[in-house]
Amino acid sequence: MDKAQRSARQFADRTTAYLGNIEKAANNINKAAKWDFRFDNIDRVKSAAKKFIKLAESHTELSNKLKLVSKNELQHAQAMSDVYSISMKTAQSTQAVSSVY
């Protein structure tokens, strides 16, 4: 009976150790995944910021082009509205529409 108890105890100890190792590995994977998720979020924010800057520059460029050919602010606002409206209706970029407008 002693031998059976010792064998059962050794099995239980080994199993507990193996499960502890598995738990440590799972915790390490979770920590790595958290950092990966954070780095992905930083990349997403950078990408969104770059897109926003590009859109802002595009809008400013369009506005400056139209200011050159507009006589007053009312005409400028109407031209901006027309360019955006035509762009949306024709699925063309505002740059392409403004060059024709």
How would you summarize the topology of this molecule?
Layout: H1 2-69, H2 73-90, H3 94-100
Helix pairs in contact: 1-2, 2-3
Describe the structure.
- The chain is mainly α and 101 residues long.
- Helices cover 92% and strands 0% of the residues.
- The chain has helices at 2-69, 73-90, 94-100.
- The longest helix is centred in the middle third of the chain and has 68 residues, at 2-69.
What are the salient characteristics of this protein?
mainly alpha, 92% helix, rod-shaped, 101 residues
Structural class: mainly alpha
- Oligomerization state: single chain
Binned, the helix content reads over 70%
The radius of gyration computed from the alpha-carbon positions, rounded to a whole number of angstroms, is 32 Å
Shape: rod-shaped
Q: Proportion of β residues?
A: under 5%
- List low-confidence stretches: none
H/E element string? HHH
Number of extended strands: 0
Query: Cα distance, first to last residue?
Result: 97 Å
- Average pLDDT: 86
- The number of helical runs is 3
Sheet with the most strands, sense and barrel status: none
Summarize the structure.
The chain is 92% helix and 0% strand. It is an all-alpha fold and 101 residues long. The longest helix has 68 residues, at 2-69.
